[in-house]
Inverse folding.
């Protein structure tokens, strides 16, 4: 018979606890989020991520989908589930779910998140606004995998936030977004680069973008920022953990200085 919790002589094992130096970031993502690795690739070794998902819904990725996964009550419940891990900040890593309700909807999401866990919170769309300001961008072109109707909600959000939408390139997809190739992402961004804009934003946290951004920025000669990039950049800033980013190129010179 095997016994645990004591030495063979019967002496109790002394339990010791230690204070760890890690900084935790809580991440709530939609149920279909498949790019955890992109988020991890953004953070330095002393930062750990605690990820959870919203409940699954059976519908195509469209405006209604974004409204469902971005419901403040749904996101707040997921945030509360992460509270036991005691993250420094909590993130809602979804672009469409945080822009679909406009600027007021994004603010309502943050308020619900902060009330649920009693700690600072941010959304991908809020991080986008912060990043565009850090880049001194006023005219913004957007590249999305979405349908035209959902892309239009992003355009409206940007206009409400004080930016001038310069144009949209989109793929018209309602699913399978994580399977989109980086070659297609490159073609999408190059299409968006035809608009007269200060910067290009590549939307959707479920679209693989991170490792093609440096090459794209070089090719188009303007800042190219993406959903996962700005989300983690903003989270690291809010958690005071951006002093030593793993690869400054992934955050852009303007973002690293901000």
């Amino acid at each position: 018979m095997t016994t645990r919790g004591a030495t063979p002589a019967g002496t109790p094992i002394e339990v010791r606890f230690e204070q760890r130096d890690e900084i935790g970031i809580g991440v709530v993502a939609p149920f279909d989020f498949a790019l955890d690795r992109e988020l991890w690739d953004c953070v330095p070794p002393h930062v750990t991520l605690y990820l959870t998902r919203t409940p699954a819904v059976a519908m195509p990725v469209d405006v209604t989908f974004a409204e469902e996964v971005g419901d403040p009550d749904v996101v707040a419940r997921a945030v509360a589930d992460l509270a036991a891990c005691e993250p420094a900040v909590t993130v809602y890593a979804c672009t469409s779910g945080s822009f679909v309700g406009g600027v007021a909807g994004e603010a309502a999401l943050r308020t619900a998140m902060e009330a649920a866990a009693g700690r600072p919170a941010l959304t991908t769309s809020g991080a986008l606004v912060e990043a565009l300001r850090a880049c001194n961008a006023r005219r913004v072109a957007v590249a999305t995998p979405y349908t035209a109707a959902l892309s239009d909600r992003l355009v409206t959000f940007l206009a409400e936030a004080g930016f001038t939408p310069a144009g949209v390139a989109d793929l018209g997809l309602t699913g399978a977004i994580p399977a989109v190739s980086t070659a297609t992402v490159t073609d999408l961004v190059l299409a968006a680069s035809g608009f007269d804009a200060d910067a290009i934003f590549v939307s959707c946290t479920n679209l693989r973008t991170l490792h093609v951004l440096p090459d794209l920025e070089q090719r188009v000669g303007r800042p190219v920022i993406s959903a996962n990039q700005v989300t983690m950049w903003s989270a690291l800033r809010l958690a005071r953990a951006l002093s030593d980013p793993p690869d400054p190129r992934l955050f852009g010179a303007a973002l690293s200085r901000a």
